[in-house]
Write a structure and sequence with these properties.
The chain is an alpha/beta fold and 285 residues long. The chain has 10 helices and 7 strands. 43% of the residues lie in helices and 16% in strands. Strand 5, helix 8 and strand 6 form a beta-alpha-beta unit.
């Protein structure tokens, strides 16, 4: 085969509960405003249910309101500082270089993406921020003084699906709502849907996990080391919404590593077969 092009593979991750335990607000921010974790989320959930409102918007509003009341800075740097406190699941820190090496050995171009309802500003403060090709997540608007004053993007479970299409088309801008809907032949897209692997942990990831699988990609539901999260993951595979479930441990040689390595090998074999088929058909004309 001539003019061989390395296929792009997209590894797409939810953040909260997928790369890090719990929610990112629980690593410093909630404690700084004087709430306990349950108390904070109860405020957010009550605000949503009492007003039939979006849960993402209500948590973003509550963060702004509580921070102002306690004199906590609402600058981007302050959110990033809280993000630096976020703990990651085992193996996550090393995961990207380890799995990128596997991709290189197979002749694949692996890129990593975040698709999260959490805050971009806090993700920017984590030690793995630089690993991602693009981050699709909730974020604030900032005034002339650099102070957050309003939600700029609120990403709920169904909004997450739009970013699957953007990744396929190579669109990184969250604000784009035109190019994502323009016609683009499937074989001209930078990332084919069958070259996607989606990592999620729960119900908010279901639309994206199902969508990726529907178009020929793969999905993994990860779970924390407790029976509640494991039961939730079991239901996802029982209802045929994901391909695999695995404990949230990204260490080299662990189950997630073995699963993803097998998926990458399959993607490479399928890609090579498709290339061979195309070349053969072309030579017969």
């Amino acid at each position: 085969m001539t003019n061989y092009k390395r296929p792009q593979i997209a590894l797409i991750y939810d953040f909260d509960g997928t790369l890090a335990p719990g929610n990112m607000q629980e690593f410093g921010f909630i404690q700084a405003i004087g709430d306990d974790i349950d108390q904070f989320w109860e405020k957010c959930n009550n605000l949503a249910s009492n007003n039939d409102a979006n849960h993402i918007l209500t948590y973003m509003y509550t963060m702004l309101k509580e921070a102002r009341a306690d004199g906590i800075s609402l600058r981007r740097e302050s959110f990033q500082k809280f993000g630096s406190m976020v703990k990651l699941f085992p193996g996550v820190q090393e995961w990207f270089s380890v799995i990128n090496k596997v991709g290189d050995e197979l002749g694949l171009d692996i890129k990593h993406y975040i698709n999260s309802s959490g805050l971009r500003e806090m993700i920017e403060g984590t030690s793995i921020y630089h690993e991602f090709e693009a981050i699709y997540s909730s974020t604030y608007l900032y005034d002339a003084d650099g102070v957050a004053y309003w939600p700029g993007v609120a990403v709920d479970s169904t909004a997450k699906t739009q970013f699957i299409f953007k990744i396929s088309r190579g669109i990184k801008e969250l604000s784009d709502n035109l190019k994502v809907n323009e016609y683009m032949p499937h074989d001209e897209r930078p990332v084919q849907y069958q070259h996607m692997i989606y990592f999620g942990d729960g119900m908010t990831d279901v639309p994206s996990m199902v969508l990726v699988r529907y178009f020929g990609g793969h999905s993994i539901a990860v779970f924390a080391d407790d029976e509640c999260h494991k039961d939730q993951a079991r239901k996802l595979i029982e209802h045929n919404r994901v391909d695999f479930i695995a404990k949230a441990d990204y260490s080299e040689g662990g189950e997630i590593y073995r699963l993803v390595k097998s998926m990458l090998k399959k993607m490479k074999a399928d890609y090579d077969f498709d290339q061979l088929l195309r070349c053969h058909k072309a030579s017969c004309k």
